[in-house]
Structures are given as C-alpha cells and as structure tokens.
Design a protein that fits this description.
This protein is of the alpha+beta class and about 550 residues long. The protein has 14 helices and 18 strands.
C-alpha cells in the first residue's frame, strides 16, 4: 500500500458534503470545494481548531490576503465560494510555491524536523501523539491499550495528530534533541502546554466550510505584516527577526511575530517515523521534543474570550484568556460569549475578537440577523502540573446573530435572562435537596461530591435551550413572539424543576414530614419536607414571573 504523504492532493481530511455524502479531501480540494462541504469530520472536537489554524486558514490568508474592510469581507460572503481567480492562486500556492512543503516524508517534512534525534537515541510509541491513548504519565482510566501496545497510524491519522500535538500537547519534561543547546541531562524542562491548551477555544461556524473559514478570518485594515510568515515559509523571515528555524532542533521563548506565526506556532519539535507493516507503511514510533514557547497570548488571538481585570497586579496583564469550565454547557457560558465590551468598572468577561467582529458586521448590515451562525467550543483540562490530560470539554451551539448587537441589546438581554433563570432554578433545586437531607437527619452534600439535582435539571432542558437559540436566529423584530418564547421557556423550566422536586420528595422517609431542628450560626431552624417544598415553590414563583402560579408541593407554604 502506497504511503500517501501529500497533504495537498491526497485525501486525509474526512468531510461531509451539503447532500450528506461522505469523502476525504486534501488541502487543495478542501479549499477550492469549500462551498460544497458542510463540515469536516474529525476524530475529536479539539481537532477542528488545530486543522483550521495549522493549515486551512493560514494558507488562505497567505495566498489571498485578509480582508481590509468590512465591505471586502461582505463581498467574500456574498460570493459564497472562492472565485476562479482565487482558486488559481490557491492552486499555485499549494503547487509551485509551497507544495513540496506539505509532505509528511521529505527532505523538509511538514510541521516536523527532518532527521530529529533524541539525545538518548530512543524513540517513543506513536501513542504519545494521542491524548486518549496510554503513553508515559498519560494513562486514561478506561484505555483499551497499554503503553506496550502498538498504535499504528495511517498517514491521514498521523497528519491530524501531528497538528493536534502542536496545539494541545501536555506540558512539563520533554525529550532533549541532538543539536538543542538548551537541553540538560538529556531533556528540556519547563515546557508549557501547546498554545491552545491555555485557552477556552471558540470557533464560529457557518453553513459551509467556506463560511466557517470566512467567519474565522479577521479584518485587518493594514493587512498582514510582511515579516509575518507561516511555519512552512520560515526561511522567508528576515534574519533580524531572531526566530529559530522550526525545521531545526533549536527553539526559543518568544512572542508571535504576527497572525500567521501565531496560527502555525510550532510548540514542539517532532519527527514521524514510519514502519513497514502488513497493512503498509504506518507511523509506529515518533520523536517529540520541546519547541518554541509562546511568552504571552496576544490580543490578536482570534479564538478565545478573555477575563478582564480592572486593576491587575504589577507585571500582570489586564486581560487573560478565559478557560471553559468543566461540567457547564456552552449556553451556560453565554454571558461571556455575548460580552461585547470591556467591563467599565471592575472585572468581567470580554468575548472573542471574531464574535466582536461578527457583531460589527451585523451592525453595518453586512451579516443578516437570520444568518445560521454556530459556535463550537472546546478545551482540555490538564492535571499533575499539566503533564497529563484529565478531561476534554466540547460543545456546539446555535447563536442568534442579533444577540451580538452592542447598541440594540434586547435579544441579548432575553437570551441571558433565560440562561440566568436556569441557573437560579438549579440553585433552588439544590437548596431543596439540602433542606430535605437535613429534614431526614442528614447533612447537605459537600460542594465537590455527589450528583446534584441542578445537573439533572440542566440536562433535561438542554435540548430545549438549543432549540430556543436556533429559533431566535430567525425571530427578527417580533417582540410579541419573543415574549411568547420566553414564556414557553419558563414553562419548560417549571415542568422540569417540578419533576425533579417531586422525585426528591417521593424518595423521602416518613420522618421527613416531622423533620428536625438544627442550630445554624447560633439559631435554631426547623427543617421538614413540607416547609422545604413550600420554600422551593415560592422561589420558583420569584424566578419564573411570566407563568401562572401553581399550587405548592407538600401542602405547606414557606
């Protein structure tokens, strides 16, 4: 079987077409046919930003340039596809200009260091590239493989995980490379995670791959910096830039020189080692060493929201990347996604550069309120000094474009009110649960232990919230319809909360009706099931103000 290492023409990206058909495409076909591709089908959600940043986006930016005005961006959107002239430029870029630099095995292998050798002369299993596979300190609890098992990667799989490592690799000690003057005792220490490992990644998506590429294209009035080059064109950077060649074992701690450098940042020095197997050539062994270290996340980073600090400590930036929270859906974090301006007083979230740009485009009527905008969020949680991957966070969300308007914020206020109501009802359920446990003679669950009824509530209404957000994308200026949508949401929340509360009460022992008295903060308080149910119902009425009152459960008022 032939080793297909040409990333330009040979299929290594799985894709779904507009008609639901499935196939594989290379870089050139993915770009020139982007208008006919609904989405890329990738092994894990964290792969999408890696593929976009390390290949598709910088190729488009470098070959065609970025739009310098909102009007130019809007013209590209209206076309819905790359023009014939743009396709020729892309073909030339991925052909005569740089085509030979997009091969996995060559004198200048893509995103690798040719002939890279570890100081100890050893190689590591290819499982080192895959966070879900057992390798070294990273041993997933339910992994079907051990470190002794071979993980044979095809060229397509190897290419994808190669990009993933540059973006998401774990931190800490890495193998020292021959020729790396900073390696000590056969290793490099202090390596941070890959650049995306420090972010809560936010990727806006459209109806086609072409729209997704455009939604992830920043508008730069001055265009790209001529000094800024992607990693495959590193030799075109001026010597004065002081940037180490990513094609060699040496590395440096430095800021990104521009957008192209940021997107294709080579945080590791890697070599894929193919092995002849019964199935053909496969990547079974690799060398992974420390690479360039990004000294700070620049404010031009397009794929993260921010935490803004009004009064940062000395030497600390006022703005830091915002991470996603495990256990919370993307819609529960809409307050950060829709935070279009820096908090005037105090601290708070600030949404991503790309979502702010979408807001501006909509305000200038270059992007309609009914545009089918989606958002994909992802991130990794690391443990043990970021040397292992503990959890992956990923979600997909429909997002009404009109909710991103900075001035006319009626829809954003509505969306955030619906999210806040779900949080408040969830907390009311947890309070009910704690009070019922006290009424039975027990104690509330510790904050970090046990399953809480709020989690079951949010799971129960999750699908309804996503349908609500999808519907709000086409609501226009119909305020009456918006009010009815809010009322329907309150009914949904109320029904789900009542079901959870009734299940809690039905499981109580008889003594909960009598309850018990407990001293809290020096005050004696009586806890019994009827009183707890009445207080819960009263709280529901305070939160869900649009729907009619419903009789309290348990027959007792608060």
């Amino acid at each position: 079987m032939e080793w297909e290492d040409d990333l330009v023409r040979q299929g290594w990206l799985s894709a779904t077409g507009l008609g639901g058909e499935h196939g594989t495409v290379g870089l050139l076909e993915a770009l020139t046919g982007a208008h006919g591709i609904r989405r890329l089908d990738l092994p894990v959600p964290t792969m999408l930003p890696a593929v976009l940043r390390q290949t598709l986006l910088p190729v488009v930016f470098d070959a065609l340039g970025v739009p310098r005005s909102r009007e130019e961006w809007a013209r590209r959107l209206r076309r819905g596809a790359f023009s014939d002239e743009e396709k020729e430029k892309l073909a030339d870029y991925l052909g005569l200009r740089y085509g030979d630099r997009f091969r996995l095995l060559s004198e200048r292998p893509f995103a690798q260091v040719a002939g890279l050798l570890a100081l100890n002369g050893e190689t590591k299993p290819s499982a080192l590239l895959v966070p879900s596979a057992a390798s070294g300190n990273n041993v997933p609890l339910f992994s079907a493989q051990s470190e002794a098992d071979y993980l044979d990667l095809t060229s397509a799989q190897a290419a994808l995980w190669l990009l993933h490592v540059h973006c998401w690799d774990t931190a800490a000690i890495k193998t020292g490379a021959v020729g790396d003057g900073q390696a000590k005792l056969g290793k490099t220490t202090g390596n941070p995670t890959g650049p995306l490992g420090q972010l809560g990644v936010i990727v806006p998506t459209g109806r086609t791959l072409y729209e997704t590429l455009l939604l992830n294209t920043p508008i730069l009035p001055d265009g790209l910096d001529p000094v800024d080059r992607p990693q495959w064109a590193w030799d075109e950077r001026p010597v004065s830039s002081g940037v180490k060649s990513p094609a060699g074992p040496e590395w440096s701690a430095r800021p990104a020189t521009g957008l192209l450098d940021l997107l294709t940042f080579q945080s590791r020095r890697i070599r894929l080692i193919p092995t002849d197997t019964e199935q053909g050539l496969r990547v079974r062994q690799v060398v992974v060493c420390g690479g360039d270290r990004l000294t700070a996340t620049p404010e031009q980073e397009p794929h993260t929201a921010w935490n803004h600090t009004a009064k940062p400590k000395a030497g600390q930036p006022a703005r830091r990347p915002r991470r996603h929270t495990s256990g919370r859906t993307a819609w529960q974090g809409l307050a950060a996604l829709l935070a279009l301006s820096v908090p005037v007083d105090g601290d708070g979230p600030y949404t991503s550069l790309l979502l702010r740009q979408i807001s501006d485009l909509h305000a200038d009527q270059h992007l309609s309120a009914g545009f089918a905008l989606g958002v994909e969020t992802c991130g990794l949680e690391y443990g043990n000094q970021s040397a292992v991957v503990e959890n992956a966070i990923a979600d997909t969300l429909p997002l009404p474009v009109a909710s991103l308007l900075a001035d006319d914020d009626w829809l954003r206020v509505t969306v955030l009110e619906c999210v806040e109501q779900s949080d408040k009802v969830g907390r009311a359920l947890d309070t009910l649960h704690s009070d019922l446990r006290r009424a039975c003679g027990g104690e509330p669950l510790p904050r970090d232990k046990g399953e809480r009824p709020s989690a079951r509530l949010l799971h129960a209404v999750d699908d309804k919230m996503r349908r609500l957000l999808a519907g709000l994308r086409t609501i226009g200026d119909d305020y009456d319809l918006l009010e009815r949508a809010q009322e329907a949401w309150e009914i949904t929340l109320h029904r789900a909360a009542r079901r959870e509360a009734e299940a809690l009460i039905a499981a109580l022992p008889p003594q909960a009706v009598i309850g018990r008295t407990k001293k809290i903060n020096g005050k004696e308080i009586v806890f019994r099931s009827g009183k707890a149910a009445g207080a819960f119902h009263a709280r529901l009425g305070e939160i869900l103000t649009r729907i009619s009152a419903v009789p309290a459960m348990g027959g007792e008022t608060a």
